[in-house]
């Protein structure tokens, strides 16, 4: 890794590295150009298996020809209901190559949601990962008259299945091979017939305020944006990246699959969500994109590990991170780093900081990328102190991912950076809302012209719903979501995300929702980090029988009160949290309170725990006794 005080290795790449005005054309050009090079890697039965571009192209050819044989016409929609696996990418690229529209469905969605998404998108072919996802599809199949076929990636446990409406991915590829032998140019003709203005993908937004909306992105918008990404966060064919966030979310679809397709960077698939920490250490990515929860988890893991270390190890780390902080302060201020400090930092890395980076798996990282939710500025500075720059990006489904980004040469924790070169960003003077305009902005919501119209201003700017500010250097800062700003009974405006980010910086807090709109003071609902709090309980002989009893233990309540007390010191009295409530259930993506990207849904949490919230506003009342 290059030295932290020399960030010239992270320079924009404005020139095109791959021809093609549609994603399908880009892919086939890439496969021809990089045929024998490795693109995808996955771990199977404990062994990493590599896919060259030529091997991926063969599989996409077979799946694409198979889809056409099943009757998938240009413009038809195929949906993919699966975790993040290589077959997801093969199916996606095959659908696009056949001129179809590709739609992803979260694997955590219930059967009723699968029905709505398939019906709304007019899905004719549905790919599912395994028997668990197949069960959902079969449950709603009779209500989907347009659905012609269900394709299963993994047939384990389904060997005896005899259903004419269901076939395996292997059988689809075999069908494609036979059809290709008869009509070898059929798929290539579909690729050539696809135009930049054709609809390429649907990305359904969270349905927290009504039914999910299908954001439409054309090939032109995707190709334009992926080229712009390289001028923002450059990648090379020598880079190793990880693919583990949901591919149906715009972040991994654009920043993972399509950006890697464009640049040629290798894409490594984790085994499953639970093995991410282990796989990071194995892969040691050179560029690593993740959501704040992942970065918080790594930090808390290091913090807890240090508590188990010897006094000497703790002292060496404390000295090393202080040296790193001094380096970071110079870098953030744009000041030259003294030679003596460089020498101490080299020693600090050798003695402690390199070991911390290896513990996480970021020892080869040129830079880290964070997005999809606000992150604590202190956390950004901590990674910088380790010697790894963390660059924050901001965007949304409707902007095809990142619209702003922090440049490596001018990192400012707490900011989302200036507008990306490929779009315009402005602050609405009346509302303070951040608004975006550019070829990366989506084509509207499927079947919802009224919602589409509401999303744009009269002069054509996208309303993002985020409130922010911009400084004289063009750096934007998010203050909060328009709908989330709290106005207390005393008339004080509070941005809850600032408090929540500070709370989540603790290794004992996974997520937090601050409450207080039209109320006399602020309270908070907290989801604790199960692993770290359990370890705290075990180390301090705190008895508990399950997760609920753990959250009710007086010692754990005291632990979280200490966290809140420390956070409160950073805020004015009217912005301080007076009471709290710990969720007594460990939530997963299957629970309605969490979004698929593992964020607590503010409105739903406030409604579901209204009784506990009311208790925090009663004289002497406490929601957990």
Report a brief summary of the structure:
With about 625 residues, the chain is of the alpha/beta class.
Question: Care to describe what's here?
Answer:
The protein has 625 residues and is α/β, with parallel strands linked by helices. The strands form six sheets. A seven-stranded mixed β-sheet has the order 7-6-5-3-4-8-9, with helices on both faces. Strand 18 (462-470) and strand 19 (476-481) form a beta hairpin. Helix 1 packs across helix 2 (53-69), helix 1 crosses helix 3 and helix 12 (311-333) crosses helix 13. The longest helix has 23 residues, at 311-333. The protein is globular and about 75 Å long. The N and C termini lie far apart (52 Å). The mean pLDDT is 91.
Q: Secondary-structure map with pairings?
A:
Blueprint: H1 23-33, E1 38-44, E2 47-52, H2 53-69, E3 77-81, H3 86-97, E4 101-105, H4 111-121, E5 123-128, H5 131-140, E6 149-152, E7 166-168, H6 169-182, H7 186-193, E8 199-204, E9 214-218, H8 219-232, E10 240-243, H9 250-263, E11 266-269, H10 276-283, E12 287-290, H11 292-308, H12 311-333, H13 339-360, E13 367-370, H14 377-386, E14 390-396, E15 401-405, E16 424-427, E17 433-437, H15 449-455, E18 462-470, E19 476-481, E20 486-487, E21 493-494, H16 496-504, E22 509-515, E23 522-528, H17 530-539, H18 547-552, H19 554-568, E24 577-582, H20 602-608, H21 610-615
Parallel strand pairs: 1-11, 3-4, 3-5, 4-8, 5-6, 6-7, 10-11, 12-13, 13-14, 23-24
Antiparallel strand pairs: 1-2, 8-9, 14-15, 16-17, 17-18, 18-19, 20-21, 22-23
Helix pairs in contact: 1-2, 1-3, 2-3, 2-6, 4-5, 8-9, 12-13, 12-14
């Amino acid at each position: 890794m290059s030295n932290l005080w020399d960030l010239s290795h992270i320079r924009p790449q404005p020139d095109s590295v791959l021809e093609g005005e549609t994603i399908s054309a880009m892919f086939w050009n890439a496969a021809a150009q990089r045929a024998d090079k490795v693109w995808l890697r996955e771990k199977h039965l404990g062994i990493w298996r590599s896919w060259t571009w030529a091997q991926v192209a063969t599989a996409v050819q077979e799946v694409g020809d198979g889809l056409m044989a099943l009757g998938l016409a240009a413009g038809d929609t195929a949906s993919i209901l699966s975790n993040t696996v290589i077959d997801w990418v093969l199916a996606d690229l095959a659908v696009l190559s056949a001129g179809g529209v590709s739609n992803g469905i979260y694997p955590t969605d219930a059967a009723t949601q699968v029905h709505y998404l398939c019906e709304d998108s007019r899905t004719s072919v549905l790919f599912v990962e395994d028997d668990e996802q197949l069960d959902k599809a079969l449950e709603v199949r009779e209500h989907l008259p347009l659905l012609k076929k269900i394709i299963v990636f993994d047939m384990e446990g389904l060997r005896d299945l005899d259903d004419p409406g269901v076939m395996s991915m292997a059988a689809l590829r075999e069908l494609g091979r036979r059809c290709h032998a008869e009509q070898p140019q059929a798929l290539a003709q579909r690729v050539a017939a696809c135009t930049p203005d054709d609809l390429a993908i649907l990305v359904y937004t969270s349905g927290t305020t009504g039914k999910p909306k299908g954001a439409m992105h054309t090939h032109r918008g995707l190709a334009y944006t992926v080229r712009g990404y390289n001028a923002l966060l450059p990648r090379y064919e020598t880079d190793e990246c990880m693919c583990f966030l949901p591919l149906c979310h715009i972040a991994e679809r654009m920043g993972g699959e399509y950006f890697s397709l464009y640049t040629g960077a290798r894409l490594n698939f984790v085994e499953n969500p639970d093995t991410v920490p282990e796989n990071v250490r194995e892969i040691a990515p050179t560029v690593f994109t993740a959501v704040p929860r992942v970065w918080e988890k790594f930090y808390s893991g290091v913090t807890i590990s240090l508590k188990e270390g010897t006094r000497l190890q703790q002292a060496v780390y404390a000295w090393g991170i202080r040296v790193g902080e001094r380096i970071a302060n110079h870098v953030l201020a744009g000041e030259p780093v003294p030679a003596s400090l460089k020498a101490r930092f080299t020693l600090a890395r050798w003695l402690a900081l390199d070991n911390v980076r290896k513990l996480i798996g970021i020892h080869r990282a040129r830079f880290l990328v964070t997005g999809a939710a606000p992150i604590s500025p202190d956390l950004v500075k901590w990674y910088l102190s380790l010697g790894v720059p963390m660059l924050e990006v901001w965007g949304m489904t409707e902007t095809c991912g990142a619209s702003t980004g922090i440049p490596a040469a001018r990192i400012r924790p707490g900011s989302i950076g200036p507008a990306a070169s490929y779009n315009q960003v402005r602050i609405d003077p009346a509302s303070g809302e951040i608004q975006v305009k550019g070829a990366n902005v989506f084509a509207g919501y499927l079947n919802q012209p009224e919602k589409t119209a509401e999303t744009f201003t009269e002069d054509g700017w996208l309303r993002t719903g985020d409130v922010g500010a911009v400084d004289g250097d063009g750096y934007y800062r998010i203050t909060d979501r328009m709908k989330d700003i709290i106005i207390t009974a005393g008339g004080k405006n509070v941005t809850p995300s600032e408090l929540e980010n500070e709370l989540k910086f603790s290794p004992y807090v996974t997520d937090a929702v601050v409450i207080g709109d039209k109320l006399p003071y602020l309270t908070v609902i907290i989801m604790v980090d199960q692993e770290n709090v359990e370890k705290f309980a075990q180390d301090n002989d705190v008895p508990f029988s399950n997760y609920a009893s753990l959250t009710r233990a007086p010692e754990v309540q005291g632990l979280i009160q200490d966290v809140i007390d420390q956070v409160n010191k950073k805020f004015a009295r009217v912005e301080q949290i007076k009471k709290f409530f710990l969720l007594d259930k460990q939530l997963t993506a299957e629970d309605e309170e969490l979004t698929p990207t593992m964020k607590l849904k503010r409105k739903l949490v406030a409604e579901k725990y209204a009784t506990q919230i009311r208790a925090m506003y009663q004289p002497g009342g406490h929601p957990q006794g």
